[in-house]
């Protein structure tokens, strides 16, 4: 961006937070810019026209990444307005949040350093990274929230579990930073963060992985209170940061273990980030993908795989209703699916169509592998299945009852193996994992 001065009006700028694996891209402003030199911020630039257009230009110019290819828009927020008395300028910052698939960027002359960091570093006075004014306020306008997690119909359970930990992390960081002004209040901080954790658990009650990962962060913080570690907000901040790293590593390891088992022709459906990574790293000779209505995320999976540099095999997309026919007429060696939740008895809750695919595979003698971190094992016997929009099935005027289940349940006897970060588990091992995860719920009694 090129600095310009207009003291007679508000100066509009865009700031984009690029997110990857729970961290955001922060850049240090160089001597080539005229304001806030040496301070850290997001991808930013003057919005002389439409901010939505300009933010894409700034991302390309300052990182070398393209929106729609390497970067995808998650949300934009209301502008942050503030006045800088030293510069005699009033600013309006238009914030954006993007998910980024890579950490490799091409730094422009406007910045002389960059790091991928937890956004909470902005609140840490000991981090030695002075932020540009109101950077945290801009981030808060687009940061994940209980509401955004509850409303998200595009991302899988594992992804939303990371978002939940981010929500808890961000609030813990704010409470920790407030100690400098208001003093420490461990009990009050804990009560506030425990209530937020409960809201997160209720936001998506069917997602065991979200429940288990939030429970682990709070249980570990409870254990810290009984040791030499700090209590209250700093403890929760520490355990959520560690929890994000642990969760991402578990998903990566599950994908790596599954990739070793992927060869020959493979069938799948829906969009599981863990399965997608396993397919990219495996050695399939052909991939069949059910389109997965109504969002048709299976199409996106096939496109992602077709674009993968290290995967060169035919991709075939078919309708959900044709799954049984495809398995009976094509030479498919294995079905590989993800899981929204694995019940204690080994049955699997996943995108609607998984049950039909697994039943058809059993009929044809094709093994079914469920790929998921053990955090997706539920501690509960009951299952809460979410439903989609009725209008996605029928929006006419006739008096009709509408069923649009988003998830279905695949019986355990239709699953041959569970591939996790711990390796391959047999169905009878799932109950032991569930018992282990129940121990994380003790924090509720504090």
From TrEMBL:
Query: What biological process terms from GO does the record include?
Result: L-methionine salvage from methylthioadenosine
Q: Which Pfam families match?
A: IF-2B, NUDIX
Looking up SUPFAM superfamilies in the UniProt record yields: NagB/RpiA/CoA transferase-like, Nudix
PROSITE patterns in the record:
NUDIX
Supply the alphabetized keyword list.
Answer: Initiation factor, Protein biosynthesis
Q: What name does the UniProt record give this protein?
A: Translation initiation factor 2B subunit, eIF-2B alpha/beta/delta family
Q: Where is the Nudix hydrolase domain?
A: 9-139
Q: Name one GO molecular function term.
A: S-methyl-5-thioribose-1-phosphate isomerase activity
What InterPro entries is this protein classified in?
A: IF-2B-related, IF_2B-like_C, NagB/RpiA_transferase-like, NUDIX_hydrolase-like_dom_sf, NUDIX_hydrolase_dom
């Amino acid at each position: 961006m090129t600095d310009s001065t207009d003291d007679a009006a508000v100066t509009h700028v865009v700031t984009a937070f690029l997110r990857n694996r729970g961290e955001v891209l922060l850049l240090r402003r160089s001597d080539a810019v005229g304001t806030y030199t040496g301070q850290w911020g997001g991808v930013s630039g003057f919005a002389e026209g439409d901010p939505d257009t300009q933010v894409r230009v700034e991302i390309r110019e300052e990182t070398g990444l393209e929106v729609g290819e390497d970067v995808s828009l998650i949300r934009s927020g209301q502008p942050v307005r503030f006045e800088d008395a030293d510069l005699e300028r009033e600013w309006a910052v238009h914030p954006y949040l993007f998910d980024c698939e890579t950490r490799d960027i091409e730094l422009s002359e406007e910045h002389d350093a960059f790091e991928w960091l937890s956004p909470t570093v902005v609140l840490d006075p000991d981090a030695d990274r002075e932020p540009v004014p109101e950077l945290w306020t801009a981030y808060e306008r687009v940061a994940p929230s209980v509401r955004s997690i509850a409303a998200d119909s595009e991302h899988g359970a594992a992804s939303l579990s990371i978002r939940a930990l981010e929500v808890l992390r961000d609030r813990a960081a704010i409470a920790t930073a407030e100690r400098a002004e208001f003093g420490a209040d461990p009990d009050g901080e804990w009560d506030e963060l425990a209530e937020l954790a409960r809201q997160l658990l209720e936001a998506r009650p069917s997602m065991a992985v979200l429940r288990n990962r939030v429970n682990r962060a709070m249980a570990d913080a409870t254990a810290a209170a009984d040791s030499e570690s700090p209590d209250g907000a700093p403890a929760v901040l520490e355990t959520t940061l560690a929890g994000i790293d642990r969760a991402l590593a578990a998903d990566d390891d599950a994908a790596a273990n599954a990739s070793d088992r992927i060869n020959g022709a493979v069938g799948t459906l829906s969009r599981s980030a863990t399965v997608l990574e396993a397919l990219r790293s495996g050695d399939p000779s052909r991939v069949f993908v059910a389109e997965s209505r109504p969002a048709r995320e299976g199409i996106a999976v096939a496109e992602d795989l077709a674009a993968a540099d290290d995967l060169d095999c035919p991709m075939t997309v078919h309708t959900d209703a044709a799954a049984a026919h495809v398995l009976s007429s094509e030479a498919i060696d294995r079905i590989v699916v993800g899981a929204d939740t694995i019940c204690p008895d080994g049955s699997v809750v996943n995108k609607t169509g998984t049950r039909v695919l697994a039943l058809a595979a059993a009929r044809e003698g094709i093994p079914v592998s469920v790929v998921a971190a053990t955090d997706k094992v539920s501690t509960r016997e009951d299952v809460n299945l979410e439903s989609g929009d009725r209008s996605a099935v029928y929006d006419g005027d006739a008096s009709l009852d509408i069923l649009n289940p988003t998830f279905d349940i695949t019986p355990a006897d239709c699953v041959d193996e569970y591939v996790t970060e711990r390796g391959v588990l047999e169905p009878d091992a799932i109950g032991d994992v569930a018992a282990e995860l129940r121990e994380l719920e003790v924090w509720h009694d504090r």
